[in-house]
Fold these 2 entries.
Entry 1:
Amino acid sequence: MPHQLLIVDDSRAMRAVIRKVLEMAGLAEAGYHEAGSGREALKVLAGTKIDLVLTDINMPEMTGLELLAEIKRTQRLKAIPVVIISTEGSAERKIEAVKLGASGYLQKPFQPEAVRKLLEKTLGWRHDG
Amino acid sequence: MTASRAIDFLDQATREVLETMFFVFPDPIPGPDQLTCPAGEAPALCCLIEFKGPTAGRLEAYYNQALSRTLAANFLGQSEEEVPEALILDTAKELTNMICGRFLALLEPKRTILMGLPRSEICQAKDPGCLFGGEGETLVMQAEEGLVAFRLVLEGVA
């Protein structure tokens, strides 16, 4: 059963780019799900078993950090790793994300290689080729 | 913090974002006051982000049409012909979002500055001087593919 990944970003273009980067990092066979806000992401999580969430922070309706907090306080969801991919990069924000339970933090703009290394480092995923 | 230093940070942020994720290599145009409309031809894509916190203000960005399409194509890894129109504006918004975020990280590396959601529109250059009127500092950059112009307003900065 391939990994099921949820990409959360209010930019459709950015969601497409993140997916492409993940596919190039060896996750071409994964199942991809998308959401444009934290609230939409929770709807996806309610109906699909997700293995990894990658989320932006600054989004309408519900921010990525609010989504992260909600995931980590929900028994059924709290084991899912959540990686933040955001334009915000202050030390303060990164600490906040880690305290809420983020498994990794990547600031935009990013090199595709940084995504692969983040997945390996935080999740122990290694894909060759 | 001076306006000049802030523009240096904006220049750096713009280059980093455009080079890393959009494969575009711009250079600043000296003497931007001499330009009347950075779009070259109307209309242009205009994006605005407001921010608040230890530093407050706003960033306006203007991309001429040719550049906008190239940016979207490069970002998405598609040809210019196959890029959906809807994603061109979305890409311009996300680009502005990334530039603003990187700029603010250079300005205040330790503290959080809250960014609003980017707003965008197709703007008509009705008044050739419209993009350079008013407060703030301007930065215009030229890439092989076209022009991008910024107006930066920082509260409390001379």
Note: Strands of chain B lie at 27-28, 44-52, 57-64, 114-115, 119-123, 137-143, 146-154.
Entry 2:
Amino acid sequence: MANSSNRGERQGPRPGAGLLRAAWRFVASRGFATAVLLCWIALLLVWVVPFQVYGLPTAQVRGIVLTEPFFLVVYALLLVADVACMIARLPARLREARGGGAGAFARGAAGVPVGASAETVARTLRSSGYGRQRATDRGGVAVKRGPSAIGSVVFHLGFVLLVVGIALWEGPYATFRGTATLAEGESFDGSAPKAFADVAKGSPSAVSGLRFTVDRIRPEFHRDILLFTKLEAAITDSARTTFPVRLSDPWFPDAETMVAIEDFGYAPVVRAQSAAGGAVVSVYKLRAFPAGTKDSLTVTGMAPSSYRIDVEVYGDYRDRSGKPGTATFNLTDPRLRIGVTRVASNGTEKPLFAGRVVRLGEPILLPDGTVTFESVSHYGVFRITRSPAGPVVLLALALCLVGAVSRLALPREVAEWRESEGGIELAVWRDVYGPWDAGRDRISRSMKGDDGA
Amino acid sequence: MPDVATLQMAVQALAGAIAVAGALTAVVRRWRGAYRPLLVVECGLLTASAAMRWFAAGHPPMFGTYENTVTAALALAVTALAVDLRTRGGRIADAGRAVAVWVPVQIAYGAFFSTAAYPLTISERSLLVDVHVGFAWAAYALVALGSMVALGVVLPGRGGDDDADAAVVRTAGLGFLMLTVMMAVGAVYSWMLTADWYPWEMVGTLTAAAWLGYAAVLHARIMFGWRGRRLAWAMLAVLPVTVAAFWVWSIYAGTYHHFDIAVIRAF
């Protein structure tokens, strides 16, 4: 039965509503945001830096910073604090951007008499860029660069977007990263089964439509020093357009895909002429840099044996008292120091010779035929990445920069004038930096000339 | 006739001697009259030194510790001169003179490292790197100035005032902005170079900590109204992290920012 005395009475507050409000106030508070910021600083200095001093590899440190639970909690709290602070403060910032908000005197700026009329003050301020003006009960307020007020909101929005973008980039789904090893003249086809030498993340199907040919690879070293001064490649895409690719200047086939050259090696072209008459020409990719580094290749096509050839490449050959040497680390006048081992069909190995220096084009006589190193070119290690996070992170960085520049380099200025005993006095305030006496005095000086008072 | 690189080293050494004299006039009151002229000469010599090094090496002076001390000293000297020209005594002028004392220290530090001029290695050949380094030294000079203002506040018997607070906040704000630009440009370049948005190596970690530290200083001022000694101590607390971020790579090779190359010659 209904209780008539309860009919029409207002319901009490819902349980938990007060708790929610308190939680919101806490999360949107300056104290919470600053505390989380300080936690992050502490984690970096107390946890990460000591590991780095100890010598932990960068990849492991990176893993700590990006995946360790302590850090993830801090990032989550930062996101929450950021978003809450932006929501809580956006109305006030928008009001300030439109010319509203407290005047300079209310904010604590000191005023000085300007010896001019209120109209002169208003006119001078307008000509100085203080366009947004409104009257107060004793004078007026003028604002310059009002939109800068939302600079901090833009910056923090950029920061939120940055965290989202990095999470996307590092996450398991959105980003593909792989490396392909290609010699000069070779083509890359993203849809081919073994297009990649290594896949670090994601599925190669993300770049199945990518095709290009490597025309040229040019590494260069400074004089006789192992100082890498150039690594350039020229690649041609499926539309027959050629692009330069450098270590510091990748190729972007589209907004989400990046092709960069990371490293290089030597790619000798070897002709194996069998005694029976057949010839096989193969390109090998050796890890034989710098000079003196040994790698090996296996020559087949001279049945019944195959031959393992140990190779050292001396790119700018010099004879150093009977020992091979190199004048520079460039591929200027290459010779190869080789050792050959015959591998029988049953797997038995028999070293034939070692330490022989051969020229390009010089035939090397073997029991089952002749091997000739016809030329030595280069191969490149190409890093291919694709991620929708790239444009997101770039946009986030742009927002951070725009917000920071507007808020910190071009802050909103509030000029206020009012009647006082000594006449009209003027005060100027800058967001972030507070009272701006120098600006006030400059405007005041210009008014004295203007008014003729 | 000595080559440009040798001449540059001579000019840098002369700038160092002038900087020592300038630092003395900054500190000893009765010699104060010679401070500005010496500072002008010092800036001129350091500018010439940087230009000559640029010519000799074929790139802006930013490769290796010696070149970076050339640039850092120039940034600090110009900052000290700008402060001296714009102020007439007071705390900010004192801070400018304190910055001038850093200059010979910077130059002397560079003398311990190889002065050989090399072309840039491939990872440094980008306009983005030039921009990154330019903003780095701008940030360094600004926070150095702000830290010297803060030092003047915390010294016994001094205390703070509105001008000092304003200077600390302004330099922290602009320094934070310069660091933000530096880090944003560096992040883009790191992504292009390594497909990694941020290198969490020693320099990257310390820089992130310093950047967050100056953010905390700004928050302390804007949101909590910190002023005087509290604000000054907050500013000074970040200084060791900043100095470490800017110079640890000169003695610790395990970072992408280490460019005092080991000379390995062909044999």
Note: The longest helix of chain B spans residues 162-194.
